[in-house]
């Protein structure tokens, strides 16, 4: 009979605290026409990322044509005056380049990702798409139809409908932030080729623009490259629009009726702060502890203990000025009222301030993930572009990380309490009103509205 083998596990290595790390520092210069060049030389990053950041806030759109920015931007890689139609896309593909656009309330970005060995020709095409777009009637009409289909799909999706209704409720109805960035059906349907071309001619130009380049340039002088293709760009017709100061709407409690729905989507929150607010680092840590981690306070009770949901989160959504915060999740219809009750109780930290362990966990996560988030040229360029778009400063990431390390349980609790007044929150629920409404009224939401979207 053989003797049993003895086995002993090796001791686990100690996990060290995250090392010191800072966001790369860019080289700054200015092109002949005033475009600010933000350049990150990243050896070994052989896919170069370029972001042209355009100062075109969406509150500059005509109210009757909201969505025209998105429609016009989506046509940029579908033909230029020099290379119309599919010819342009084929040339871009030949260079192995990817072209994209990102539209937000603060403006929009045109994005190019290309192997460094193909940078010069792809960059020429990139500039051509911005400065000489074709914006044909046929392309505009097609993108209008695509956008209308996306809007219809969004209204059919309970989670998206809850987020849209929450935005409409939290922000002042007169604010552009209260409506979809890509425009709503009535305004999108009015966009035609002439409107899109006119919008591009009036809004897109070098004034207020920044160009972010990141990667291993392989011996190419990035300033000379940018000057050659963008430095001579001018647009005397460009109109500068001041950025809107977003304001809150009145508190609202509403159920959007979905008869027969077996689950309901909940958004419970209010008007928030942006990243320039001195409370931002503390509030970020607090909301992570409340609803950002898997074993956060909300998820530990509503998912793990009660089994009411597959997951619930609390998040901060900053704008250039102001923002919003919300507890959000999908819950079984029969437990919605109790889930909202518990969420309200958990969200009130007056008698249960944040702990040192919660703060350490949140700070460790936020500081530890940053080197991974910015490990590629695209990650660096994307963050640098956002910094420019919303006026954060090129050193924002490094400053924010330093401020996060200074957060204490007391400062996190104070910042959170100054932002979250549980008795003043907006509640939006998308679900079966026949089951949900009365229990919510009994809970104290006596002014609850029931809206029938199909009506």
TrEMBL record:
Residues 197-362 form the Peptidase M16 C-terminal domain. One of its GO terms (molecular function) is metal ion binding. Residues 43-167 form the Peptidase M16 N-terminal domain. Pfam families: Peptidase_M16, Peptidase_M16_C. PANTHER family: METALLOPROTEASE, PROCESSING PROTEASE. This is Putative Zn-dependent peptidase.
